[in-house]
Design goal:
Layout: H1 6-25, H2 37-44, H3 48-60, E1 64-67, E2 71-74, E3 95-96, H4 107-120, H5 137-148, E4 159-162, H6 165-176, E5 182-186, H7 191-199, E6 203-207, E7 209-210, E8 213-214, H8 216-225, E9 228-233, H9 247-260, E10 263-267, H10 281-284, E11 289-294, E12 306-309, H11 315-325, H12 331-343, H13 345-367, E13 381-385, H14 392-401, E14 404-405, E15 407-408, E16 421-425, H15 431-450
Parallel strand pairs: 3-14, 5-6, 5-9, 9-10, 10-11
Antiparallel strand pairs: 1-2, 4-12, 7-8, 11-12, 13-16, 15-16
Length: about 450
Amino acid sequence: MDTIPCMAASRYKTLVDAMASDIRAGRLAPGVRLPTHRGLAAREGIAVVTATRVYAELEAMGLVSREQGRGTFVRDLAVPAGHGVDQQAVATDAVDLNFNYPSLPGQADLLRQAMREVAASGDLDSLLRYQPHSGRPQDRASIARHLRRRGITADADRILIANGAQHGLAITVMATLSAGDVVAVDALTYPGFKVLAHAFHLDLEPVPTAADGPDLDALEKLCATRPVRAIYTMPTLHNPLGWVMSATDRTRLIGIARKYGPLIIEDASYAYLVEDPPPPLAATAPDITVYVSGLSKSIATGLRVGFVVAPPPAVPSLERAIRATTWNTPALTTAIACRWLDDGTVNRLEAQKRDDAKSRQAIVRQELTDLPLIGHPSSYFTWLPLPEDARADRLTATLARRHISVTTAEPFTTSTHTPQAIRLALGSTDLDTLRSALRTVRRVAVEDACA
């Protein structure tokens, strides 16, 4: 029951409506810092608790954002609340630096040829029937051979085929975690895992980030003080910061997990872009690690084939989760993917995309040379921190008006502090367009900093 007296409730609603109207009409400009809760209470003659509720409702409406230690700011409504990494939100005439779907010339011809080969195969009828929930044995064996090249030796019966890496993460959460479970995550992490955490009511605990990985002292302190059930991590090419954890840090992370008992969920979706990385966590600690990856980034986003490598006790639960969500991965796409794994096509495409990503990173360094960039030299994204007095939503909205779509830090943030930064996805446009767009990004960022 609402404990605010009727007159106070009426005043509270009137104030929410008035401020919302001012924001939508532009009378409160984007990026304006609003009064503190105490300041609003004094100005309007209301209780501090009522002022807090006013701001909470405005935030729920997507009109303001609260930043720990800085205050409450008016959002730029040209940028959707959440600033999600969503290719559907990108205008058709915009340069997409928001979402990565890297593709190389000739991939469509490869698909045509693969479909001809599948059509001519002797087992075409089998593709029309239900498949085993975890995938056909021969397909799981193909993935096992592929994973050996990534340093993971796993029997095919520990491998499950999923409908993309995101589905692999979803079934991992369904099979191994319950509502209310505490999961340690990086303070900046993959938005898709945040979506899963919200859907399954997980309690995400952010771990501060260091220059080349999570703050392991903070992680150990967290595990010692809270019942952490899982650690979600991207040790090889972190999204969005691009780090690659050292072998020493991987060993320590595994030691923390063994000491305190959480499961490790290793997301390796972008790991293919790193040449000669340290061994995956799943190679060193296969009994406590679920390894998730796929071919959507390395081959094509439309090829929804992912794979999960799990400790044997977790396999039956993962199979049940696949049955509950998709029954099995579509047999046709799996057949094409496994042909490409076996004939070397995947290896060739991954090598070409590493070279392509390096070329794009080189362009970033040329065009944004005097900006404080964070990223890996062969990744498809770059993190651009902004000055503390800058506003990422304002910069993002300005770029959107110039037909360039980028992402703020908000969808990646798991802590109460959202840094002022943008992520630039580099893999979805041609090189000349990328270069031109980056010049605009630099010009707008410099203008915003001087405003």
